[in-house]
């Protein structure tokens, strides 16, 4: 796959960032060090460029029905300015991706969300509940999945004869994540005209960030308070500089710290903690059954109803090693006597706890917190105990 570059690639390169390929994108993995960046988010504030995440816009008379049939949560519960976490499953209930779905101001044309933010603010005067047309949504697939999901939405729309427009707008948006205990203060200074700090968790609004009309949501992937700012790609530089330059001076952070932060909280990583080919898992196995609304009709619903009734054989948990060694994805988990009881999908040395931790799937009989297991590290069984994430009290 050809490497895709985020709008801020040259800015990151000039700042001395180290890059890595992730989902077909060249993204900064670290600016200073993973430990420094991780600590900034846990203790103060850091800012991530996450423009590798996809943006698919869906609008039209049947947009709500299309979204509800293709995600596991109930989109009907969303008012303009609300968002929700959901899974995207195939007919067997296996997760193809996980996503956040945002309901945009009604009447937002699909394919024009990023370009029309200023007009939206002007039209609504800040009132996202003002009725002004068909429902509109923005959902965020993980890196490299935007084309697949746009095709999936379009194909099912046509198969079901629904009236909705689907647009892959990933190239139109930039996305920054401002995370940490001081994130609200940083946003407050960058949005003097708008009170985005009054947003509740999973609420969003149109706001001028450093003068750039943006879609700002109180969401994140670190376990800390934080905001995700989606703005037109052409204006990403002004928004980025508003946080990393004085007086706010948020720590620029790369994907390395993003991974250690989300591992400490136990958040799933698409393509690693679940993957329809390499690690096929359902929401119930992945411990996100709370996003499955069986009273809606979505692809995979019937299979998941059966699994909920019958239970799962393996479930997603954490492990904490009590011996030296760093757990990694793919390492076997045993009962301490060489009998395999599961495997890890992620692992790291926790910068906050200074302890080796991992995430993965264990047989149900070993999945209770405090159960003693072992992780096979380079051929040696290392003693560990099961932890139900998060590892940190957040």
Blueprint (SSEs and pairs):
Blueprint: H1 9-14, E1 18-22, E2 25-30, H2 34-43, E3 46-49, E4 56-59, H3 63-70, E5 83-89, E6 95-104, H4 117-124, E7 136-140, H5 146-160, E8 165-168, E9 173-179, H6 183-190, E10 204-209, E11 212-217, E12 226-232, H7 236-244, E13 251-253, H8 255-265, H9 301-310, E14 314-321, E15 332-334, E16 340-350, E17 355-363, E18 372-377, E19 380-387
Parallel strand pairs: 3-13
Antiparallel strand pairs: 1-2, 3-9, 4-7, 4-8, 5-6, 6-7, 9-12, 10-11, 11-12, 14-17, 14-19, 15-16, 15-18, 16-17, 18-19
Can you characterise this structure?
Helices cover 22% and strands 30% of the residues. The protein is an alpha+beta fold. The strands form 4 sheets. The chain has a 6-stranded mixed β-sheet, sandwiched between helices. The protein has a 6-stranded antiparallel barrel with strand order 14-17-16-15-18-19. Strand 10 and strand 11 form a beta hairpin. The longest helix is centred in the middle third of the chain and has 15 residues.
Summarize the structure.
The protein has 9 helices and 19 strands. The chain has helices at 9-14, 34-43, 63-70, 117-124, 146-160, 183-190, 236-244, 255-265, 301-310, and strands at residues 18-22, 25-30, 46-49, 56-59, 83-89, 95-104, 136-140, 165-168, 173-179, 204-209, 212-217, 226-232, 251-253, 314-321, 332-334, 340-350, 355-363, 372-377, 380-387.
């Amino acid at each position: 796959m050809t490497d895709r570059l985020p709008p801020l690639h040259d800015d990151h390169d000039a700042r001395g960032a180290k890059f890595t390929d992730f989902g077909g994108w060249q993204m900064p993995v670290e600016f200073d060090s993973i430990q420094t960046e991780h600590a900034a988010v846990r203790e103060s504030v850091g800012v991530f460029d996450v423009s590798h995440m996809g943006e698919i816009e869906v609008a039209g008379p049947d947009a709500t029905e299309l979204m509800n049939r293709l995600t596991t949560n109930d989109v009907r519960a969303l008012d303009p300015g609300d968002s929700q976490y959901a899974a995207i499953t195939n007919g067997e209930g296996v997760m193809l991706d996980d996503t956040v779905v945002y309901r945009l101001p009604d009447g937002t044309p699909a394919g024009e969300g990023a370009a029309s933010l200023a007009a939206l603010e002007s039209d609504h005067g800040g009132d996202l509940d003002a009725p002004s047309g068909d429902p509109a949504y923005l959902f965020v697939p993980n890196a490299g999945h935007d084309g697949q999901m746009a095709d999936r939405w379009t194909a099912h729309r046509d198969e079901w004869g629904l009236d909705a427009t689907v647009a892959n707008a990933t190239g139109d948006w930039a996305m920054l994540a401002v995370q940490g205990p001081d994130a609200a203060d940083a946003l407050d200074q960058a949005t003097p005209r708008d009170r985005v700090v009054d947003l509740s968790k999973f609420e969003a609004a149109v706001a001028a960030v450093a003068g750039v009309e943006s879609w700002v949501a109180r969401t994140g992937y670190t376990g800390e308070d934080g905001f995700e700012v989606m703005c037109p790609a052409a204006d990403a530089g002004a928004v980025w500089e508003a946080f990393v330059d004085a007086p706010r001076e948020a720590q620029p952070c790369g994907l390395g710290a993003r991974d250690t932060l989300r591992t400490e909280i136990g958040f799933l990583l698409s393509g690693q903690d679940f993957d329809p080919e390499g690690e096929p898992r359902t929401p119930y196995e992945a411990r996100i059954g709370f996003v499955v609304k069986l009273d809606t009709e979505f692809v995979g619903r019937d299979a998941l109803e059966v699994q909920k009734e019958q239970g799962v054989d393996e479930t997603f948990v954490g492990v904490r090693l009590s011996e030296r060694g760093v757990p990694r994805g793919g390492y076997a988990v045993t009962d301490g006597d060489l009998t395999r009881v599961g495997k890890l999908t992620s692992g790291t040395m926790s910068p906050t706890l200074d302890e080796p931790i991992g995430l993965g799937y264990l047989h149900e009989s070993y999945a209770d917190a405090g159960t003693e297991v072992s992780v096979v590290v380079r051929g040696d069984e290392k003693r560990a105990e099961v932890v139900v994430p998060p590892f940190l009290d957040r």
